């Protein structure tokens, strides 16, 4: 995968999910929804990092991270707020959060190679107080709870493509999110598979929309829209 521009990963996900026939929810199940896929991706990226020091893919590009950090800055989220990055991948966003000054940061991913890569990237940056854990967000260990902020960049998208009962997995995602996030805590999601309206439906139980973050617009064939949705929900 080589994606560098904002929304680029959207095209990638759409292209990969185009094969086969759609399920009940309109999505075509894809390898992107499986742990085997992500293990293979991060195994490769870990190897590349070891050989060339390249951290690999930043899903939705640099701007997607800046957008979230700008929002936290604008809303004066205290630097000691606890932040959870759900499906952290290479952990680059954790590094950005730490460099910005956040001091209570946790990254989880169900792929052990992703967590190994995140650990290596964090170590190379000389950062030591970031917590990392191999964790399936759909089957959480009891220790994870009480976060002020939860971030999702592409993970709900990936889960939505799971070939094995994605509808149920999405419901489980919402339950897990309710469990880990404090009341009044914020959930910041960036998605290329779901529109704002669809995300509002997905997270209607227990969450309300706090703010929509501006994302690049496209226009094609006389229609215009956003290729990426970035929303902030608050837990009720
Ligand atoms: C599209 S990548 C995004 C990675 C990272 N958030 C970023 O923005 O670069 C999706 C990530 O979600 C992780 N993931 C998918 N399903 C998961 C689950 N059930 N629990 C934890 N992590 C999961 C994958 O391993 C992968 O790292």
UniProtKB/TrEMBL annotation:
Its main location: cytoplasm. It comes from the Eukaryota. Gene3D superfamilies: Vaccinia Virus protein VP39. GO terms for biological process: methylation. GO terms for molecular function: protein-lysine N-methyltransferase activity. It catalyses: L-lysyl-[protein] + 3 S-adenosyl-L-methionine = N(6),N(6),N(6)-trimethyl-L-lysyl-[protein] + 3 S-adenosyl-L-homocysteine + 3 H(+). The keyword ATP-binding does not apply. One of its GO terms (cellular component) is cytoplasm. CDD domains: AdoMet_MTases. Residues 1-29 are annotated as: Disordered. Residues 81-210 form the Methyltransferase domain. Its EC number is 2.1.1.-. PANTHER family: EEF1A LYSINE METHYLTRANSFERASE 2, PROTEIN-LYSINE N-METHYLTRANSFERASE METTL10. Belongs to the class I-like SAM-binding methyltransferase superfamily. EFM4 family. Protein-lysine methyltransferase that selectively catalyzes the trimethylation of EEF1A at 'Lys-318'. This is EEF1A lysine methyltransferase 2. It comes from Rhinopithecus bieti (Black snub-nosed monkey).
């Amino acid at each position: 995968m080589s994606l560098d521009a904002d929304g680029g990963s959207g095209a990638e996900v759409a292209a990969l999910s185009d094969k086969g026939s759609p399920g009940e929810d309109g999505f075509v199940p894809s390898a992107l929804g499986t742990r085997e896929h992500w293990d293979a991706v991060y195994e490769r990226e870990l190897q590349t990092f070891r050989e060339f020091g390249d951290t690999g893919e930043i899903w939705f590009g640099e701007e997607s991270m800046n957008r979230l950090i700008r929002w936290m800055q604008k809303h004066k989220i205290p630097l000691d707020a606890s932040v959870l990055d759900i499906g952290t991948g290479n952990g680059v966003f954790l590094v950005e959060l730490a460099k910005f000054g956040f001091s209570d940061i946790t990254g989880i991913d169900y792929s052990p190679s992703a967590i190994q890569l995140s650990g290596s990237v964090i170590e190379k940056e000389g950062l030591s107080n970031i917590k990392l854990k191999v964790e399936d967000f759909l089957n959480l260990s009891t220790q994870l709870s009480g976060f002020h902020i939860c971030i999702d960049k592409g993970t709900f998208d990936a889960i939505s493509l799971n070939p094995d009962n994605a509808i149920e997995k999405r419901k489980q995602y919402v339950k897990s999110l309710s469990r880990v996030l404090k009341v009044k805590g914020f959930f910041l999601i960036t998605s290329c598979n779901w529109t704002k309206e669809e995300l509002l439906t997905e997270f209607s139980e227990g969450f309300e929309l706090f703010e929509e973050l501006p994302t690049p617009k496209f226009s094609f064939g006389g229609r215009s829209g956003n290729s990426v949705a970035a929303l902030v929900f608050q837990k009720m």
